[in-house]
Automatic annotation (TrEMBL):
It comes from the Bacteria. This is Lipid II flippase MurJ. It comes from Dictyobacter vulcani. Pfam families: MurJ. It is a multi-pass membrane protein. It is found in: Cell membrane.
Length: 450
C-alpha cells in the first residue's frame, strides 16, 4: 500500500529519485552503528550473561549498550549533517543535475534524524529477540509503513508539501516503530540505569562482535551507494526509482525467507553454540541451506514470470506510467537472479554470529563488494542503451551468489572441526569407554582368579 501510493503520487520522476537517493547515507550510518549488526552482536552476549551472571548483570549490560547507542548515534547525526552536501554531490549522484543534487541534500539532512531513533529501537528489538519474542518487532515494521503512508496523505491533501510529506513521514514512522515495542519491553521487567563504563567486560564483548559485524553490514550498504553512483549516469532518468521498486518486490521473498527465518534462527543457534552442541548446529546449517534453495529458486522463477503483470496491477496508476512499468520489470528480471544468493547469505551469516565470529561475514561481505564493483565495470562494457539498467541487479546477483557459496563452505568446515568439542560427542565417547571397561572387567577378574 505504501509503495502503491508513493508511485501514484511521484512515479519515477526527479522527486522520487531524490527521495530514494537521500535514504542512502542515513541507512548506511544507522547500519554502521546499530541495525542488524547490533542485534547479532548483543544476543549471544546477553544470553551468556543471563545464564552465567544472572538477570541483574544482564540488564546492566543492556543499559550500557543503550547509552552507548544514544551517544554514538547523536554524534553520527551531527557528522552526517556536516558532510551531506559533499557526499551527495561528489559520491552519491554526481551524474544528476545541480537542482536534483540540492533537493537530495536537503532530504538527506532531514532523514539523518532517522538513524538516531532507529538505533534506540534496535536495542529494544534485540532484547525482545533474545527472549524469543518476535511478534512486536514484526508489528513495528508494519507500523512503520503506517506512519509513512500518513506522510504521503499529507503530501496529497496539503498543497506545496510534495516530497517533503513522505520525508517527514519517515521520522514519524520510526517513532511509531519504537513506541509499539515498549509494552513488550516492560513485560520483560527491564531494569534501566544510566551507567557509562567502557571497561565493562560484557560491553567489550559486544563491541568486539559489533565492530566486524557492523563493518560487514555497512559494506552491503556501501554497495547500494556504489549502485546509486553508477545509476546516476544511466541514460534513462527513471532508472533509480525503477531499481528501487524492483528491489522492493524482490525484497519481499528475501525478507520472508532470509531475514525472518534468520532472525528467529539466531537465538536457537546461539543457544546451541553456548551449550557446545556443534553436531546439531551442523545439522541445522545443512537444513538451512536445503530449505533456502527449496524456497528461493521457485520464488525467483515466480518473480521472473509474473513480475510484469504484478507491476502493472500494483503500480501503474497516476504518475507511474507504462514506461515506468517496463523499466521496473527489466530491473526485476535481474534482481530475481540475485534472490537465492541473498536469502542464503542472510541465513548462513547467523551461524557465524552464533559462534561469536563476526569477522568471517565481514570478510565475505568485503569480497562480495569487490566482486560487485568489478562486475559493474565489466558489464557496463557489454550492456548499453535501454538494457543498461540490468547491469546493477546482475552485478548484485553474481556477487551474492558467489558469497553464499563461500559462506556455506566456511561454516560447514568450521563446524566439522568443532565436532570433537561437541558436548554430546564427549558424553558419547565417555559412555563408550565406560561400556568397554565394563566388558573388559570380567575378563580381568577371571584371569586373576585362575
Amino acid at each position: 500500500m505504501r509503495q502503491v501510493i508513493f508511485n501514484s503520487f511521484f512515479g519515477v520522476g526527479a522527486d522520487a529519485n531524490a527521495y530514494y537517493a537521500a535514504a542512502r547515507l542515513p541507512d548506511t550510518l544507522y547500519n554502521l552503528i546499530a541495525g542488524g549488526a547490533l542485534i547479532h552482536a548483543f544476543i549471544p552476549v546477553f544470553l551468556a550473561y543471563e545464564k552465567e551472571k544472572g538477570e541483574r548483570e544482564a540488564w546492566r549490560l543492556t543499559s550500557l549498550v543503550f547509552n552507548l547507542v544514544l551517544v554514538s548515534m547523536t554524534v553520527v547525526l551531527l557528522l552526517g549533517e556536516f558532510i551531506a552536501p559533499t557526499f551527495v554531490n561528489t559520491i552519491l549522484i554526481p551524474g544528476y543535475t545541480p537542482a536534483e543534487r540540492d533537493l537530495t541534500t536537503t532530504l538527506t539532512r532531514i532523514m539523518l534524524f532517522q538513524p538516531l531513533i532507529l538505533g534506540l529501537g534496535t536495542v529494544i528489538t534485540a532484547i525482545l529477540n533474545s527472549r524469543r519474542q518476535f511478534l512486536l518487532p514484526a508489528v513495528s515494521l508494519a507500523v512503520y509503513n503506517v506512519g509513512l503512508i500518513g506522510g504521503l496523505l499529507v503530501a496529497k491533501w496539503v498543497p506545496g508539501v510534495g516530497i517533503y510529506g513522505p520525508t517527514y513521514g519517515t521520522l514519524v514512522a520510526v517513532l511509531l516503530q519504537l513506541v509499539v515495542q515498549l509494552p513488550g519491553l516492560f513485560k520483560q521487567n527491564v531494569r534501566y540505569s544510566f551507567v557509562w563504563d567502557f571497561r565493562h567486560p560484557g560491553l567489550r564483548q559486544v563491541l568486539i562482535l559489533l565492530l566486524p559485524n557492523a563493518l560487514a553490514i555497512s559494506v552491503a550498504y556501501i554497495g547500494n551507494i556504489v549502485d546509486t553512483h553508477f545509476t546516476s549516469y544511466l541514460p534513462d532518468s527513471a532508472s533509480l526509482a525503477a531499481l528501487h521498486n524492483a528491489e522492493m518486490l524482490q525484497a519481499l521473498p528475501v525478507a520472508l525467507i532470509g531475514q525472518a527465518v534468520g532472525q528467529s534462527l539466531l537465538p536457537h543457534l546461539a543457544a546451541q553454540a553456548v551449550a557446545g552442541r556443534y553436531v546439531r548446529m551442523r545439522q541445522m546449517a545443512l537444513k538451512v541451506i536445503g530449505v533456502s534453495m527449496a524456497l528461493t529458486i521457485p520464488a525467483a522463477l515466480l518473480l521472473a514470470l509474473f513480475g510484469k503483470p504484478t507491476i502493472h496491477l500494483l503500480f501503474e496508476h497516476g504518475a507511474f506510467d507504462a514506461h515506468a512499468s517496463d523499466v521496473t520489470n527489466l530491473a526485476l528480471l535481474g534482481y530475481a537472479c540475485a534472490l537465492p544468493g541473498l536469502a542464503a547469505g542472510n541465513l548462513l551469516s547467523g551461524g557465524f554470529f552464533a559462534l561469536k565470529d563476526a569477522w568471517t561475514p565481514f570478510a565475505t561481505n568485503t569480497y562480495a563488494l569487490v566482486v560487485r564493483w568489478g562486475m559493474l565495470y565489466f558489464l557496463f562494457q557489454f550492456i548499453h542503451g535501454t538494457e543498461a539498467i540490468l547491469v546493477v541487479p546482475l552485478a548484485l546477483a553474481i556477487s551474492a551468489g558467489s558469497e553464499s557459496i563461500v559462506m556455506a563452505f566456511l561454516l560447514l568446515f568450521r563446524l566439522r572441526r568443532y565436532i570433537k568439542r561437541d558436548e554430546g560427542m564427549k558424553r558419547l565417547e565417555q559412555r563408550r569407554r565406560y561400556q568397554k571397561a565394563r566388558k573388559q572387567l570380567p575378563i580381568q577378574l577371571s584371569s586373576n582368579h585362575e
